[in-house]
Amino acid sequence: MAKKKCKSEIVTSQAKVETLYYTVGYVPNGGKRNAPPALHIKGNWLHHCGFFTGQPVTITAKNGQLIINAELLV
């Protein structure tokens, strides 16, 4: 019997790296001063990067950076 050649490999899908530009806005607070800053992130690119509707995320904020990690759905 001939031996079969088996080769296992790990397949990962990675979205292409792209830079997107947003502007920090604010949340209306009834005309009071010092409205809190807000950032609304949306688009199909989130899905391509592994983020799905209803999926929990963790956000780490430090030194002018926001790092958003998708939590694994089990």
UniProtKB/TrEMBL annotation:
What Pfam families would the database entry show?
SymE_toxin
- A Gene Ontology CC term for this entry? cytoplasm
Q: Name one GO molecular function term.
A: hydrolase activity, acting on ester bonds
Annotated ranges, domain Toxin SymE-like? 21-69
Q: Which BP terms does GO give this entry?
A: RNA metabolic process
Lineage: superkingdom: Bacteria
List the protein's name. Answer: Type I addiction module toxin, SymE family
The lineage is: Bacteria, Pseudomonadati, Pseudomonadota, Gammaproteobacteria, Enterobacterales
